[in-house]
Write a structure and sequence with these properties.
Pfam families: CCG (PF02754). The chain is α/β, with parallel strands linked by helices and 234 residues long. It has two domains: 110 residues, no CATH class; 108 residues. The protein is 52% helix and 8% strand.
Length: 234
């Protein structure tokens, strides 16, 4: 199995015949949520400017969609885009200067939604699993991508379980690392429910920190849905 979700997504693109490009300075970019959530407005503005300009160039001015491999980061990119659009709203209405980017043309997609809509029907699940347990995330709820998450899971297994008591894992970026008691409290009901169920063949989510939080809470190893899809469609 691929170690990281980005690697899995790239392999899925290649397998499904989807062409892609990666910004040259991808290692210098971030969705800016860490700055925004801590109130570091200057850092947020600097990173937002860097990311949007890079994505504008990489997408040929919005011609290509932007696909992000972590649900919370996808939400962060959408928030970033909307904040900048609002700040530039008067410019867009009154006319942009020649060559000035119109960031409203950027289209942000979560990788789970993109895979469900554009790749799943081009892939063959050659190694289906007997059962899968899912942990939807807060960002999935905000983005409306939980149906796509479940669609992919159902393509990989006939037995898909979504805990009735699923909810925020409390990891909240780095909060779970600094205050593990937050995750322990937030996941108590979900972890208890899972402990009463059978052992599932796989446990999946769609955000690395949520996967870490659920792994710590349940003792089961959670992985990204893209990693499992890559493994089952080889």
């Amino acid at each position: 199995m691929t170690r990281y979700a980005p690697q899995a997504f790239i392999r899925l693109c290649e397998r499904a015949g989807v062409k892609y490009r990666i910004p040259d300075n991808i290692g210098e970019m971030c969705c800016s949520t860490p700055w925004k959530s801590k109130g570091f407005t200057d850092g947020y503005s600097i990173m937002s400017d860097r990311v949007l300009k890079s994505l504008w160039e990489a997408t040929d001015g919005g011609r290509l969609p932007v696909v992000c491999d972590a649900s919370s980061c996808t939400e962060g990119l959408n928030v970033m885009r909307e904040k900048v659009i609002k700040a530039l709203e008067h410019k867009i209405v009154n006319g942009l200067k020649p060559g000035e980017p119109d960031f409203s043309r950027l289209r942000m997609y979560d990788a789970v939604q993109f895979a469900a809509d554009n790749m799943l029907d081009k892939l063959t699940v050659s190694a289906p699993l007997p059962s899968i347990a899912l942990h939807p995330t807060c960002s999935m709820t905000h983005l409306g991508t939980q149906p796509a998450f479940e669609k992919i899971a159902n393509a990989m297994s006939a037995d898909v379980y979504v805990p009735k008591h699923w909810g925020c894992c409390g990891y909240a970026g780095d909060r779970g690392m600094l205050h593990p008691e937050l995750t322990a409290s937030a996941t108590e009901a979900e972890a208890a429910e899972l402990s009463e169920q059978k052992q599932f063949a796989a446990y999946i989510s769609a955000n690395r920190t949520c996967e870490q939080g659920m792994t710590e809470a349940t003792g089961h190893t959670y992985q990204n849905v893209l990693q499992l899809l890559e493994r089952t469609t080889r």
